[in-house]
Design brief:
Structural class: mainly alpha
Number of domains: 1
Shape: elongated
Largest sheet: none
């Protein structure tokens, strides 16, 4: 039980008395631990080739590297997706500074392998 009669599960760690330095410090420590945990989880995802491929696809799907359409509602959606992509990329850089370059290399390798397989198939079938 906490001082206010609630269990710890019922207590929002962000619901504090901002004038109480002990509560503020406790909240800041909790938030720091939460952030450390978030980055550790992302680093674990980035630690596998499948996780990196998924993150790369999400970054690609965000369209953050292309110009948004000119129609207003489509533009709003595209800008929102791009913002999410940039936020994800920021998280990736914070979790692992080398992951983005590795993801880019792996994506290029996948594209090269795909193109090589297409060429081999078309050559085998005599398609030009």
């Amino acid at each position: 039980m906490t001082d206010n009669g609630k269990t710890w599960e019922e207590t929002d760690p962000l619901d504090i008395d901002a004038g109480d330095p002990v509560q503020v410090e406790s909240r800041d420590e909790i938030l720091e631990l939460v952030r450390i945990n978030e980055l550790a989880q992302l680093k674990a995802i980035l630690g596998s080739s499948g996780g990196r491929a998924l993150i790369w696809r999400l970054l690609h799907l965000s369209g953050m590297d292309v110009d948004p359409p000119t129609e207003s509602s489509a533009m709003a959606r595209a800008v929102g997706r791009a913002d999410l992509g940039r936020a994800l990329l920021t998280e990736v850089h914070e979790a692992d500074t080398t992951a983005h370059a590795l993801m880019r290399k792996e994506a290029q390798d996948r594209a090269d392998n795909f193109n090589r397989a297409i060429r081999m198939t078309t050559e085998k079938e005599g398609i030009e």
